[in-house]
Amino acid sequence: MRIFLATVMLSLAAVTASAQTSFGVKAGGNMSFFNYKIEEGSQNVKWNGSRVGFQVGGVAQIGIAENFAIQPELLFMMKGVNKMDVEELGDVKLNIKTFTIDMPITFIYRTNGFFGGIGPNLSFGLSSKMKVDGNDDVEYDLYDKDADGEVSIFSQKRFEAGANILAGYKLKNGLSFSLNFVKGLTNLSEYNDDLEDASIKTKSSYIGLSVGYFFGK
What is the mean pLDDT of residues 147-160? Predict the structure, then answer.
């Protein structure tokens, strides 16, 4: 993972050195979605939840041709679920708050201020805590294992790879508005190795709406 990130950053640095580049900042809100699916033979159990969060960080546009650019971003984000119904576990509602560092790298097309494109998204979890709704005294760390190395069915991996779709508009004064959708492609569940006859799949996605500003424009 570290070698991959280092390679990406060095490649971007090399492109930046020889291309027209603008740097900026962006912030906004997001709606994240988490989907949990337990498969055991012909029986499936699904839980779905969502949460309103935020995203804030830095962004760059690196010109590689007249109308084409690479847009890397480094974002601090809050995601999770709010009051997710889990009837099979005693009809409880779960609240999960997850903080991540996301790095979307989008290949965009630009024309008359409009821009849009697609690319990969890399996400690294900083913190993920779960509480049962109505009981704030007990909090579970979804990245931790107990003394025996066991994890819960909601335990998560820190790293997730996904795909990003971006569209937006950039004014001549540097102000920009953007909308993006990220779909996680890897299984976030940390629990699969402990199940013999069943598997758990955890997938996430989010929609983000941001306002940004590019310096020097």
Answer: 78
Cite the DSSP H helix spans in 60-142: none
Burial of 55 (0-12, 13-18, 19+ CB in 10 A): buried
| Total residues found in the chain within this entry | 217
Name the residue with tokens 């492109």. Answer: 15
Q: What stretch of H or E contains 4?
A: helix 2-17
The tokens 């991540």 sit on which residue? 100
Distance between CA atoms of residues 116 and 165, nearest Å: 8
Strand partners, 98: 79, 128
Angle 97-100-103 from CA coordinates, rounded to 5°: 150
- The secondary structure of residue 198, as a DSSP letter, is -
Tokens matching residue 66: 């007249």
Residue type, 94: L
Strand locations in 41-113 (E): 43-63, 68-86, 92-111
**Do residues 166 and 118 make contact, with C-beta atoms less than 8 angstroms apart?**
yes
- pTM for the structure as a whole: 0.85
Residue type, 163: A
Contact 52, 31 (CB under 8 A): yes
Q: Would you list the DSSP string of 12-23?
A: HHHHHHTS-EEE
**Rounded Cα distance, 189 and 57, in Å:** 27
Tens digits of per-residue pLDDT, 52-100?
999 999 999 999 998 999 999 999 999 999 999 988 777 789 999 999 9
